[in-house]
Amino acid sequence: ARELGLEASSVSRRIANLGEELGGPLLKPEGRAVALTASGRRALRSFAPILSALETAAANTARRAFDPQRRLHVLAPSGYTMAILQHAAASFQRLYPETQLWLESGRYGEEQFERLGQGLDLIVSTIARENAFFERREISDHRTMCFASPSYLERVRLQHPRDLAECSLCGNTQFMTNQVFTRRGSSERVSLPLSFSLMSDNTYVLLEWAACGNGVFVGCPYTTAVDFVREGRLCAALAGWELPNNHVYAYAQKQDLSSAEKVLSMFLEFLQRASDTARDAADRVFGFDRARIS
């Protein structure tokens, strides 16, 4: 009665009426409580799978239909969540305040893709995957750079990527393969197997580590480091060298992106604009050409 918001007498009357329809009482007194009768146990066994299937079907139907009051559940890396996703969410909710956003940040792997369409609507990932059941869209292509605190750069000689071998390094666990550096404006390339003192999938843990003067953050997207640079806590290291760009993809079930009227498709447009805005702001801070990086 409490769960349904009804009077106890009303619920008792409904249970009694249901028992009459099914051929016998469903409940019986047992001390100060009540228990199921044999008829009640048979009814429970018969109806429980049907009711469960109805609940699942209703939830799936509600999730598939366009509903501006629905909840949109997004999984993204922590750095991307802080630097870009939160801005997209704020802009989106100013126009669609009825939509509840659940922004989940943290590790993601193959097991997370099994959650798409099962309560998880969108995965933002730096890893390119192919699957027949979901669609992938690239939403950003940003520079990655090396960063260190001004005090650390005063203590170490850092003119060539090979000098990193003498430094304490941190990096994201998603990018622990050999780092390929290209000298800007030339064809010189250097491939280095680096040893990391600190590895994490949380970009802001790594940024704080570097900002405290502990070493060099290798391969950080410049859009996530830009606030630390503005504050003077970090500087670009090896500024004359480039690392491979950071590609970010959005994954969702194909039917959820098939119509421009779907709330998920509309949210992706906001995410793309927030990503472009962050890229342009970082280009201005670091003095790069604001044209789209290819």
Sum this structure up briefly.
By secondary structure, the chain is an alpha/beta fold.
Give the secondary structure arrangement, pairings included.
Blueprint lengths: L7 H15 L4 E4 L2 E4 L1 H27 L6 E6 L1 H18 L4 E6 L4 H4 L8 E4 L8 E9 L1 E5 L1 H6 L13 E4 L6 E5 L5 E4 L5 E3 L2 H9 L4 E6 H9 L4 E3 L3 E2 L3 E8 H4 L5 H24 L8
Parallel strand pairs: 3-4, 3-5, 8-11, 8-12
Antiparallel strand pairs: 1-2, 5-15, 6-15, 7-12, 7-13, 9-10, 9-14
Could you explain the architecture of this structure?
- With 294 residues, this protein is of the alpha/beta class.
- The chain is built from nine helices and 15 strands.
- Helix 3 (78-95) crosses helix 9 and helix 7 (222-230) packs across helix 9.
- It is elongated.
- The strands form four sheets. It has a five-stranded mixed β-sheet with strand order 4-3-5-15-6. Strands 11-8-12-7-13 form a five-stranded mixed β-sheet.
- Helix 3 links the parallel strand 3 and strand 4 (100-105).
- The longest helix is centred in the first third of the chain and has 27 residues, at 38-64.
